[in-house]
């Protein structure tokens, strides 16, 4: 019985936790790589179209191998319509995000991403996906933890403080320094970029809610993500081809632009989308969105490790505050799940009988 509970805890809590952190690491790297590509002339219309094309080509064989336990939804069904709507939302959010990063920087995009839990939690309450019982300790933990985690992320962004650890002794090349300065200090419109990125994360929150509803009816992660990528490709192709006046820009040569497209399309839009969809089905939209503030901690760590940037006190304090808030929400979510499972077992005599038989056999 203990082994069964431990295995269930590992599958439902440890694996999703590790998977979501891995996705955030990959996403932060993708944002930084995209900014480097735009500085070398990559059009975001070219980027968006090729990312969806690469994701569709990668997911096609995977959906044929692993996603055939259910029949494909009919083009006239409500499920297919919702998947098409998901593709439209995803395309709009990617356009807004790419243009926002082009106008500003990955740092600002990561900071604004901390609003995703607030957006998602509000929408989840409106659509009755999340229950708000103010007297419940689980609800109180989720509310307090969300506020604390967002506060910690803002501390990292707004307060630098003195150095805790000096920069690495190995000095990056002048080209790397120049590139990093462009990545962090953009000369474009900062406010417009921030508004575009904020609209991106609002659309992503709506995407989380709609995707959760799709998975409740059609729980096939790989098939849903493949159909989503296919529909997004069909939507983005005419728009991007008409919007991009220089058609020669679609001819990508081996460079950072091609690496950015392959990295984002092959990892973020495939593996990341499948993991997010699976997590939405398993844990719900609020749980998935709570990992967005962690991306700031990941970005700070990547800067210190790979760019030789110094670690400042504000980053340490903000990371500690964010971690406390994050684990508070995770505790509240775990308590809510356990309460729900206990209530379900009390209402199900069949489940209770199986539990007694298992205990007797063990």
Structural commentary:
The protein is mostly helical and 362 residues long. It has 14 helices and 2 strands, in the order ααααααβααααααβαα. Helix 1 packs across helix 12, helix 2 runs antiparallel to helix 9 and helix 2 crosses helix 10. The longest helix is centred in the N-terminal third of the chain and has 38 residues. The chain is globular.
List the helices and strands and how they pair.
Layout (H helix, E strand, L loop, with lengths): L1 H38 L4 H23 L11 H26 L2 H7 L3 H11 L10 H22 L4 E3 L8 H11 L5 H28 L3 H23 L12 H28 L1 H5 L4 H13 L4 E2 H35 L1 H13 L1
Helix pairs in contact: 1-10, 1-12, 2-9, 2-10, 3-8, 3-9, 5-8, 6-13, 8-10, 9-10, 12-13
Name a few traits of the molecule.
single chain; 362 residues; mainly alpha; two-stranded antiparallel ribbon; 1% strand; disordered C terminus
Helix share bin: over 70%
The secondary-structure element order is: HHHHHHEHHHHHHEHH
Beta-strand residue percentage = under 5%
Mass-distribution shape? globular
Mean pLDDT: 76
Profile the largest sheet. Answer: 2 strands, antiparallel
Number of helices: 14
Q: How large is the radius of gyration? A: 22 Å
Instruction: Indicate the low-confidence ranges by residue numbers.
Output: 168-188, 345-362
Structural class: mainly alpha
> How do the strands line up in the largest sheet?
1-2
Number of strands: 2
In short:
With 362 residues, this protein is mainly α. It has 14 helices and 2 strands; from the N terminus they run ααααααβααααααβαα. It is globular and about 60 Å long.
């Amino acid at each position: 019985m203990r082994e069964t509970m431990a295995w269930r805890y590992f599958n439902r809590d440890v694996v999703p936790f590790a998977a979501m952190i891995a996705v955030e690491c990959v996403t932060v790297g993708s944002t930084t790589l995209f900014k480097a590509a735009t500085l070398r002339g990559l059009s975001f219309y070219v980027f968006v179209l090729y990312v969806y094309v690469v994701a569709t080509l990668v997911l096609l064989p995977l959906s044929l191998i692993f996603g055939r336990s259910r029949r494909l939804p009919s083009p006239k069904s409500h499920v297919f319509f919702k998947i098409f709507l998901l593709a439209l939302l995803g395309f709009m959010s990617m356009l807004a995000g790419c243009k926002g990063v082009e106008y500003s920087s990955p740092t600002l995009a990561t900071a604004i991403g901390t609003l995703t839990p607030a957006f998602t939690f509000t929408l989840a309450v409106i659509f009755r996906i999340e229950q708000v019982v103010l007297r419940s300790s689980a609800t109180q933990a989720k509310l307090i933890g969300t506020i604390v985690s967002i506060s910690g992320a803002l501390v990292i962004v707004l307060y630098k403080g003195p150095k805790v650890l000096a920069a690495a002794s190995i000095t990056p090349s002048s080209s790397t320094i120049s590139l990093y300065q462009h990545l962090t200090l953009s000369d474009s419109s900062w406010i417009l970029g921030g508004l575009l990125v904020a609209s991106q994360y609002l659309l992503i929150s709506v995407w989380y809610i709609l995707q959760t509803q799709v998975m409740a009816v059609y729980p096939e992660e790989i098939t849903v993500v493949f159909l989503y990528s296919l529909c997004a490709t069909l939507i983005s192709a005419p728009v991007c081809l008409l919007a991009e006046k220089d058609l020669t820009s679609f001819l990508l040569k081996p460079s950072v632009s091609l690496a950015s497209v392959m990295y984002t399309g092959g990892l973020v839009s495939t593996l990341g989308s499948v993991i997010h969809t699976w997590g939405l089905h398993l844990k719900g939209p609020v749980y998935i969105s709570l990992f967005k503030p962690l991306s700031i901690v990941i970005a700070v760590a990547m800067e210190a490790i790979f760019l030789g940037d110094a670690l400042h006190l504000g980053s340490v304090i903000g990371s500690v505050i964010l971690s406390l808030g994050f684990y508070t929400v995770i505790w509240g979510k775990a308590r809510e799940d356990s309460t729900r499972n206990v209530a379900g077992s009390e209402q199900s005599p069949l489940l209770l009988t199986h539990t007694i038989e298992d205990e007797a056999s063990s």
